[in-house]
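Re: export button greyed out
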Amino acid sequence: MENIQYIAVVGVVFLALRFLYKKIFSKKKSNKSCGSGGCGC
Amino acid sequence: MRSLIHIALIGNPNTGKTSLFNTLTGLNQHVGNYPGVTVDKKIGTSKLPNNFKAEIIDLPGTYSVHASSLDENVAVKILIDTESEYYPEVVVVVAEVENLKRNLLLFTQVQDFGFPTILVINMKDQMLKKGIQIDVDALARDLKTKVVLISSKTNEGISELKELLANYKKIQPAQSFKLNTNSVIKVASEKEQNHRDTVQRYQFINKILEKSYRVNRKEAKGLRAKLDAILMHKIWGYVIFFFILFNIFQALFSWSEYPMELIDSFFGTLSETVKNNFLPGVFTNLLAEGIIPGIGGIVIFIPQIAFLFLFLAILEETGYMSRVVFLMDKIMRKFGLSGKSVVPLISGTACAIPAIMATRNMESWKERLITILVTPFTTCAARLPVYAIIIGLVIPNDNGFLGMNNQALVLMLLYLLGFVTAIVAAYILNKVLKIKSNSHFVIEMPNYKLPLFKNIALHVLEKTKAFVFEAGKIILAISILLWVLASYGPGNDFKNATTIVTESNVNLEETTLNVKIASYKLEHSYIGTFGKLIEPAIQPLGYDWKMGIGLITSFAAREVFVGTLATIYSVGVDDEATLMEKMRKEVRADGVTPIFTFATGISLLLFYAFAMQCMSTIAIVKRETNGWKWPLIQLFGMTSFAYLVAFIAYQTLK
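Workaround output, generated via the alternate export path:
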């Protein structure tokens, strides 16, 4: 039972790390408004 | 058999486009993001006559196909990209009775793309009051399309519109004005060509409207003109705005107090229940001490955020907010901001996440960037628990200046400090940043109208969801990691904490002993070790390693500071009074000097007022500015400034 709890914790921590990694290093295109030259207009 | 028709709703801002979308789709709608960018995408379904079903996309409000903001750019891209899954079969251009001339500019441009295009003229209910008459048949003939007069308020004309949509194939794509659509994107940057095109279109529209549109100006000069004279008055306008703002904040705090207490006690009980009833073990501990308090820490701010956005939505729906934006533009411009910065700055008092997202409608990149960079200075809801406990600790609870309670006065000053710093920082950034940016201010002055409950409810829901799912998920993820770092530690001190504490406290009763063990474990956990590591750096500010841990953990979200201190000082998070007593008794290594003196308290308050202690905000700024440059500048700039101010405050006052 103890082992299952450890595995669950490792799973949750992995998911949290993966989420933060994706959040921080996600590649989204330019979100600048016009005038910056970044919006493609 | 049911057939699905893809419909796009497009129109100028404030034409009631979203109201029409809500009327057509009801609750069958969802909000997402357009691929690659963070502009909200609203899609819904609607039943049409003859067993047809429509998938309706509510495109961002736009004045022209020559995009000048991100929202407008997205709207145009949808109409151009034939490969897009949202590419419509029929386009509905939403106009409104009073600003038909300007609305028709967009209509003629959209018509040029070659879609069957229906012109919907909203706010029919306002026509009588405004003395407006429209010859719908003549308009339809000249524009070579179908025209429907509707009122999304009274639902008049909706069934006629649905009938037209179901039979859209009968509407032939037509061009009432000629334009080379292939060059739309290429020429968008060529101002002159745009200008010439716009002038010609307006000449064409003028000719049409001469025949089909009549306004009796005497009747139009009604309540709106009178209200504008007061609400946009150069003195009374500001007085009224600040009076409204003051009342909003009053209501915000008093109304949200009860639900916040309820949420707090609910999560406290839930945590306790899980701990007592689940199988004991490490995962149960994570649930009870990491996940549940983490979720609780997010949910507790929902009442404040929901109430603030409720008030803002009411101001926006009534048409008052546009007046405020116009009124404040003159002042804001002096500091490098725009009138449109008012909404993010006010929203920032709830949470910087939706506030920063609210900058998307700003045309000038420089003004938008400055607003994004200074918004986190405004006092957000997460700072309140930190302020509450520190103020309670170091500021006497008696009456002082003008008979005001000293603690309330300091809290008010901190709010003021946030706003003033934001404005001053904007002024400096405006001078320092060498970004070329076109600064043109376009604001629609909509009519005053009674707010629609449905629109307000949807707006509040949308903003609250943005907070819960943007900031909330990050706070939760970090709470989990912090729990791990606080529950495990290097070396034997952590491993043998129980034995060490029990041996040196033989006579203590079990509860007190457990508390001592938890405190000892935290001190020797990974996070405790790190707190001690940074102690030399924070000592000049008057902080010890315990506060250091608080500073590290509260990087997830500022309010985590209180929870962390509660854990370090080994008392329940809910019982602030007990925590305060413990904090008051804390002494430095000499065993005599108290840690939480007036100097330390002020230093801590100022640090939290200025430091960028919010991981979720950094993530949002990174997304909104499309890179790490600005969030990192913001993080180091704000935190260095906070450090400097806290250092000066402590060294002067100690």
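Helices of chain A lie at 2-25. The button fix ships in the next patch.
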